[in-house]
Amino acid sequence: MEGFTFGKITDFEAEACEEGDAFLVAPDNSRAGLVWKVTDKVCMTEISPFEVGRWGVWDVSFPDPMNSRDNVRRNLELILPTLKEKWNEWRKKFHEAR
Fold it and tell me: Distance between CA atoms of 38 and 62, rounded to whole angstroms?
C-alpha cells in the first residue's frame, strides 16, 4: 500500500471482533497507532499528538469487517490519504527541524 504496512495488535483473524488496536508503518519505518472499530461510516480522529518517535495515535472507523486481508486493505485505502498527510506533517515537524 504505497510503502505503508499495516500491523495488527488485536488478532481479528483468530476471533471476530468489532474493534481493536493496530499500527501503521510508513516508508521511513516510523509508526502511527490505530485504535479501530467497525461502523457504518469512515471517521478518523487524533487521540495522541505527534511525538519524536511516532506520528500520532488515531481513532479510526471503517465500514467493512476486519476479518480478511482484502477487507483490511479496503478499509485502509479509505483512510490512507489522510494518514499520509499526517505522516508528511510529522516528517516536516520532526525531520526538517534537525
Answer: 5
In this prediction the pTM is 0.86
Which of 53, 68, 67, 43 lies closest to 23, judged by CA?
53
How many independent structural domains does the chain possess?
Answer: 1
Other beta carbons within 10 Å of 69: 10
Cα–Cα distance for residue pair 58/22, rounded to 1 Å: 10
The per-residue pLDDT for range 38-60, each reduced to its tens digit, is 999 999 999 988 888 789 999 99
Residue 34 phi, psi (nearest 5):
-130, 125
The alpha carbon of residue 21 and the mean position of all alpha carbons in its chain are separated, in whole angstroms, by 9
Domain containing 63 equals 5-95
